Every structure is written in structure tokens, then in C-alpha cells.
Amino acid sequence: MALKASDLKVGDTHSEEICHELSRTQIVMYAGTSGDYNPLHSDDMFTKNAGYPGVFAHGMLTMGMTGRMLTNYVGDGRLTKYGVRFVSQVWPGDTLTAEATVKEVREEDGQQVVDLDIVTKNQDGTPVLTGSATARVD
Amino acid sequence: MASDEFPIERGHIMLFARSIGDANPIYYDEEAAKQTEPGQIIAPPTFVQASAQFDPDYFLRPKIGKRWFGSGKEASGSNAPAEPAAEGAARTGGGGGGLHAEQHYEYHRPLLPGMVLHSVSKPGKTWEAEGRRAGKLNFSESITEYYDQDDNLVITARSVGVRTERPATQG
């Protein structure tokens, strides 16, 4: 299931739809498992009072869902680094697509690795998350 | 966030995987997991975020018997009285003014059920920028190292938080 260095070319991409019309309930599920009960993510009344149009998803939910695209691509237990910036908010109803692009295939401490650029966009094509990852490959 | 004892539990991993919409059986099915390269159930890449559950002082969890800054009948919102929980949230940006800007992980060894992690957090850099929508942005970094029960480094996490002058409403 793991990727082979010899099969990878700079510019190769892998993309997945990571959520379809994100539900408020999914956001509540994430609050419950992560332990981040910030009312900005579940409490519309609080959130509007704080000056936002309504609740929005935890950045870490988008990072978690984007991580699923990554592990589906590079294989389980293969990531050595994964980092992101949250560049725009994710709202209930959003449909997100995450894409990884091969930036470099190289050797690190005698191990073949692939460096990936990551971007997750919403249904309007607006990036909500950008980042990078490194994974061990065969 | 820091916790003295963060037990990595199978049930918690399963629930966490569901909450990020990940149906990969390696997160809940022991038999299926045996057929994978790691050979057993593992935790997803962002799982250590759930260490918040085991931080007794985590300010974004309602505390039993304490006032919570979220709404009840009325929207308490960011105007909540300065009770301890509300103060903590305002200080670190949990209320109206603060957001998570970046998160970075380095994986040193697999995160497995049965491990009991402890972590050490230290502040990193701080810097300022001018935002297009939210006015002045104050960034601050925090680095957390997660160790297993034998003091092996498992994951290094670097988190960047941002306090905004105004709500960042574009999306």
C-alpha cells in the first residue's frame, strides 16, 4: 500500500473530497472527541454575539480530515511530518477537497522520503488550509 | 496544552476517527489492523490534539460547578463576566478574539493504544502582522513534546495561535 519512490514524479497529485456539506453535528462530534469545546464551534448565539455570522469548524477538524487524504495516499504510519496553516474559515455546509502534490523525492538518513505540498479548498475554490507533509516511501 | 498523563485508548481513537470522518479500519478493527504495515491499531496523525481532554486546566472545556462563557438562555458571548474560565479564554484567545493559525507535527514513533503519554510545553516565538480583514494580528507559538511512559519522544507539536483585533469574518 506504501508508495514507491521510483513511481513518484514531481508534480504528481492525489486528491479526495474530505467532507460533503459539512454538518453542524460533525463539528460537535469533533468538539466531543478533541475536547475543544470552544463555543465558537457549536454555540450560534455566542458566535453571533462575538461578531461572526455563525459557528464555524475547528481548524483541527479540517487538518484531521485532510490527514485522512494523506494517510490514504502515503499509507498508514508513514508520515514523518505534517504541518498546516489555517487560511480561511470552514462553515457548516462547506464541501472540501484536499490535494497533495509531490514536491520532491529524496533520501533522508538512508530512507527514501517524499515531500508533499497540501492544499484544501472549499466548494468555491478558496483555499481553507495550506501545508506540507513528509512521508517515508519504499 | 500540557498533560501529565494522557492515556492512549482504543475507544477514544475510534471515536476520534469517526469525528474526522475517517473510516480506515486501522483505527478500530484489530483484525483488519493486523493486515496493515503497522500490524496493529494506531492513532490518526492529529490525535494528540485530544490531549486537551486530559489537561485538568484546559480553558475550552466547561468545568463542573464553574461558570462557562458560552451561552445558556442568553448569549453570554465575549461579554461574559470575568469569571476564571472567561478570563482564561480571553487571555489565550478562546473567546471572540483568538484563533488557531497553524499546527505542525513531527512523528518520531507510532502512537499506539496502551501508551501513556506525558508532555512538556514551552512558549516559542511571538510576532505581529497586519491582517486584511481582522486588523492587527498577534501571533504566538507553543511547542509541545509528547513522551511515552519510557520517556521516548513520540510526537513534537508546534502550534501557532493568533489574537485578532476584529473577528475574522471572511470565509
Topology summary:
The complex is a heterodimer of chains A (138) and B (171).
Chain A: E1 13-19, H1 24-34, H2 44-49, H3 59-74, E2 79-86, E3 96-108, E4 111-121, E5 127-136
Antiparallel strand pairs in A: 1-3, 2-5, 3-4, 4-5
Chain B: E1 6-7, H1 10-19, H2 30-34, H3 84-92, E2 98-107, E3 116-130, E4 136-147, E5 153-164
Antiparallel strand pairs in B: 1-3, 2-5, 3-4, 4-5
Brief summary:
The complex is a heterodimer of chains A (138) and B (171). By secondary structure, chain A is of the alpha+beta class.
CATH homologous superfamily assignment of the domain at 5-22 and 59-136 in chain A: Hotdog Thioesterase
CATH topology of chain B: Thiol Ester Dehydrase, Chain A
Q: What percent of residues of chain B are in strands?
A: 25-35%
CATH architecture title of chain B: Roll
Largest interface in this structure: A-B, 56 and 57 residues
Could you give the count of β-strands of chain B? 5
**Residue-averaged pLDDT of chain A, rounded?**
96
Structural class by SSE content of chain B: alpha+beta
The third-level CATH topology of the domain at 5-22 and 59-136 in chain A is Thiol Ester Dehydrase, Chain A
Strand order of the largest sheet of chain B: 1-3-4-5-2
**Helix percentage range of chain B:** 10-25%
Instruction: Indicate the radius of gyration of chain B in whole angstroms.
Output: 18 Å
State the total count of DSSP E strands of chain A: 5
How would you sum up the global shape of chain A?
elongated
Tell me the series of helices and strands of chain A, N- to C-terminal.
EHHHEEEE
Please list the strands of the largest sheet of chain A in the order they lie side by side: 1-3-4-5-2
What percentage of residues of chain A falls in helices of 4 or more residues?
Answer: 10-25%
Distance between the amino and carboxyl termini of chain B: 27 Å
Low-confidence stretches of chain B: 79-96
Task: Report the sheet-strand fraction of chain A.
Answer: 35-45%
CATH homology-level superfamily of chain B: Hotdog Thioesterase
